[in-house]
Amino acid sequence: MTSTDTGPATRTERVLALPDGDLHVTDEGPRGAPALLLIHGTVSSGRSWDLVAPALAEAHRVVRVDLLGHGRSAKPADVSYAVPDQAARVAAVVERLGTGPVTVVGHSSGGIVATALAEQRPDLVAAVALVDTGPSLDAYLEPPGGDLRPQQWPPTDEELRAAARTAFATDDFPAPHALFDDVRLMEPASMGPVAAAATAYLAAVPLPTRLAGLGKPLLVVFGELDRRWAPSSATDYEVVPGATVTMLAGVGHTPIVEKPARTAAILRDFAGAVERVP
């Protein structure tokens, strides 16, 4: 475990041992502050939040988890990667850290895990924020080639750039090299089950339906130029009582990288409003 002083707060990176495998956790910000839990998307890691987390950590305790099979967490081939199981592992992290109820924020398929966490453990979740998380499979936009194939591993730089193209508003967006490094950390044996798990969860029940009955404050942030999920589908979440839907102009599927300052401000305002409610 390593720690770095950041004024009144602390940044700590640690590995938490769980029955299915070790999870890498980054924990930063004032320890007594309300907590934000950030969950990354498929074939990514907690480092995808690097441009957003420091601003959030000024007034919040910010926890990032590398889901099992991703980043610097374990990648066993003989465990379930089903969304409810991933959510249960995240719940164990929240309990282990003793943060109290969190505002859970998920990007892309990380929002699916965030939803499952709120379903399973409403006692651990104060509010939910989804960043470019498709509400149902009907909203998915078939990518024009460039999929990563586990049977052809590791991917070349050209294959990585092709696969990342639709993650941003423009083909030539300068994606951080750390994102490519995270992809290379994936194991072919876990990639397929991880992707299939998200699809199965959405196919069973759309996210707006799942969230509508939970009674949790909901923020949905969507890039107007998302090329992976239809931006118009963001309005599907309006069936959730009190949901706030925010569209970002000139942004694609990854606002946390394309417009990190704006995204952080939106998330910070939402979390603050939740905390002010008696």
Short description:
About 30% of the residues lie in helices and about 20% in strands. The chain has helices at about 55, 85-95, 110-120, 155-165, 175-185, 190-205, 205-210, 255-260, 260-275; strands spanning about 1-5, 10-20, 20-30, 35-40, 60-65, 100-105, 125-130, 220-225, 245-250.
What is the secondary structure topology, with strand pairs?
Blueprint: E1 2-6, E2 9-18, E3 21-29, E4 35-39, H1 53-56, E5 61-65, H2 83-97, E6 102-107, H3 110-120, E7 125-131, H4 157-164, H5 177-184, H6 188-204, H7 207-212, E8 218-223, E9 244-248, H8 255-258, H9 260-276
Parallel strand pairs: 4-5, 4-6, 6-7, 7-8, 8-9
Antiparallel strand pairs: 1-2, 2-3, 3-5
List keywords for this structure.
278 residues; alpha/beta; Rossmann fold; nine-stranded mixed sheet; 9 helices; 21% strand; globular; disordered N terminus
Question: How would you sum up this structure, described in words?
Answer:
The chain has one domain (2-276): Alpha/Beta hydrolase fold, catalytic domain (Rossmann fold, 3-Layer(aba) Sandwich), CATH 3.40.50.1820. The termini are far apart. It has a 9-stranded mixed β-sheet, sandwiched between helices. The chain is 32% helix and 21% strand. The model is unreliable at 1-7 (pLDDT under 50). The chain has 9 helices and 9 strands. The longest helix is centred in the last third of the chain and has 17 residues, at 188-204. Helix 2 packs across helix 3. With 278 residues, it is of the alpha/beta class.
